Fold this sequence. Notes:
The protein has helices at 2-21, 29-45, 53-87, 96-107, 115-132, 148-152, 168-171, 173-187, 201-210, 217-238, 249-252, 269-279, 294-318, 331-344, and strands at residues 135-141, 191-197, 243-248, 322-325, 352-353. The longest helix has 35 residues, at 53-87. With 360 residues, the protein is of the alpha/beta class. It is elongated and about 85 Å long. The chain has a five-stranded parallel β-sheet.
Amino acid sequence: MQKEISQIINLQKQLESSLRQRGQLGQNPNALILAAKEIMRRKIEINDSSIDNTAFNQAGRLLRSIGYIVTETDNLRNQIGQEFKNNFYEAKNYSDEVAATSAYLVEISTLSLDRNEVSNIIETVSNSINNDGKVSLFSFSCPEVDFPYLVRGDYPNDYIQTRANKNTLSQNSQKNRQVFSQLEAVSGYPIELICIVGELDEESYIFPILGDFNTNPYELAQRRDQYRADLYRQITKTYPQIDVQLYGWSQLKPDNSSSNRFLPSYSYIDKEMSIMKMLMQPDKYYAGALRPNPSQLQQICQLKMDTYATQGLVVKSMFPNAIGLQNEFPMRQRSLMLNAGLIAQNQDAIPFTYPYPLDP
């Protein structure tokens, strides 16, 4: 597939250069070709007197300059789509463009996907392309924090950072650029990235168990607003070729989210407790600032799973046509936790692909 993708990208560069020279960059090439063909038809078949020789010649030059590029690009996309259909019968009733887009999302995953996951990707891609005219992706981003501020006493609110520096989207910037550019080339549609900042983790599953460390909710909200604004600036500067929609979990969280204590995500509680112990080490995410006892740690992990399940329900409701780019480790467990509430309610799961290196 990479050979065909490289050919498509080279063709897209040729197309962009040709349209720029003609002063038509940014216009839909397929629409331009249809218009040019109509001019040629009317002039040749019915000798339409309203079409002068200049317009006729311009239409011919456009078809010669970009017609073959568009045709060859479509042929390559169809080739990718047909090959995918041959390997996955789930895709046989979908268009070649949907199949090609799905093929790429499956191809880049470093974790193997079962046939149900592939089928979910295909259906979601089809809905995104056919209903929205774009390919929608979503990703969670952990907020940037400095947890020792919580226990120093003087300025506990300052644990929330207000500047975006090192986060999941910036750390994976090279891979993301490649994914976005190749996905747009393969699909032929614009790419939308929905980024959700998981900014209420402490209020959701730390503070209820360990206390709020004398933080001020109003000041925390202000600092989070500042951080989201700076993160949006960073993301749009890093990925100018895509449409970015950024939300904080505080903007999406239901006012009265009920407890999900019945959810099957609790089957991962032992593994999650082990992960949280690791994250609370001095050189990890919580920087040694939090020291819950075993009972408190278990309660924290239960609330964390409730939080993820609620987030999954909201994401599926608000962004039903988005494919998840899983960037949090351990990747498979995080996807299972986000989908736990949907599975418990017999709803379709959120489809994920895993374009990043395997869990460390």
